Amino acid sequence: xxxxxxxxxxxxxxxxxxxxxxxxxxxxxxxxxxxxxxxxxxxxxxxxxxxxxxxxxxxxxxxxxxxxxxxxxxxxxxxxxxxxxxxxxxxxxxxxxxxxxxxxxxxxxxxxxxxxxxxxxxxxxxxxxxxxxxxxxxxxxxxxxxxxxxxxxxxxxxxxxxxxxxxxxxxxxxxxxxxxxxxxxxxxxxxxxxxxxxxxxxxxxxxxxxxxxxxxxxxxxxxxxxxxxxxxxxxxxxxxxxxxxxxxxxxxxxxxxxxxxxxxxxxxxxxxxxxxxxxxxxxxxxxxxxxxxxxxxxxxxxxxxxxxxxxxxxxxxxxxxxxxxxxxxxxxxxxxxxxxxxxxxxxxxxxxxxxxxxxxxxxxxxxxxxxxxxxxxxxxxxxxxxxxxxxxxxxxxxxxxxxxxxxxxxxxxxxxxxxxxxxxxxxxxxxxxxxxxxxxxxxxxxx
Length: 447
What we know:
This protein is of the alpha+beta class. The chain is built from 14 helices and twelve strands. It has helices spanning 25-38, 51-58, 60-84, 136-149, 198-204, 251-257, 263-295, 304-325, 329-336, 340-367, 374-388, 392-399, 404-422, 430-446, and strands spanning 2-9, 12-19, 93-94, 105-112, 126-128, 152-155, 165-174, 177-178, 184-190, 212-218, 231-245, 425-427. The strands form three sheets. Strands 6, 7, 8, 9, 10 and 11 form a six-stranded antiparallel beta sheet that branches. Strands 1-2-4-3 form a four-stranded antiparallel beta sheet, covered by helices on one side. A two-stranded parallel sheet has the order 5-12. Helix 11 crosses helix 13 (404-422).
């Protein structure tokens, strides 16, 4: 067998194969045995039809054509891939083979491949250092959230106001027919939350225990096809009026809400946790800035099959997220004030950006001679198993045969991105640089 590879597009190559006649013998023999098991010939048991009888029955040309299509072409195409180190991304498009009995078999196969990428200089990528700092206000906000969790409701005698809670019986009807989904007993409702209809909040504000409220309201279209846009009648009995009372901010609260003895210790812990989160955000943002800056400098032809696979994955994940939130596509489009065409365009842009990043990081890893060892692959499998709470063997089975290569690719891309960040020219933000300059001037004036 002789074979050559020629590029036909930036992401496609044509593999030309020539197979000598004597190399076709095993493929023809395998086809004859297979057809001998499938073709029924009177006087012979199934699978026991001699080759000469089979050829007389179906014709030698049919046998040869069957052998070329189903045996020879796949076999020698696979050998050509191995010989030239071609890694196809899609199923090959094979031109009709050229063959005459006793002559060499010639065929060509066009297949999509990853493009060759000319990388610009990837050391010293200039980016601005992201700076997310923890403020006293953020710590106070964390404290407030804790107080909300430990707040208690107390009965009040004054009229209800926004932020108060009303314990109510609510009955909803449409033409005297009760709506079960909007009828509840002893329902604790936060005034101002607008989780039913805005008119309920308007009616509750200023009301007291014992008041009976009756009003009409039209449900929004988002309520669904059965009730959306329908005018309903609401009858509400205010059974109790309550207000949220936050715990006093002192050491007793710290002991009740945490494992710390003092409020100062609780504050210090919350600040430390926020700082860890800010540091993680800064690291992630720095990676994003470095990768974005580098991708903008690289021109990469994108294999359509990779883009389509990524697009299908992102579209499927988008639908799953809508289902988890209990939102239909039409409802989402209305709330987001967008169109299905715009969503599809955004998902395609995201898919193209993701594929470009994958190809570029793989090129950097190859240029730097990076490798992913078996130990690193196993460690990643262990990490994934721990993250989802499964046995590592279950993860291996779920990955399936050959999926270790996917994990190996993930590891290499992670290493390549870390290399870019480590060798980037990271500069202080303008605000931070100005602050450092001012501090330096003040220090100099003191001297």
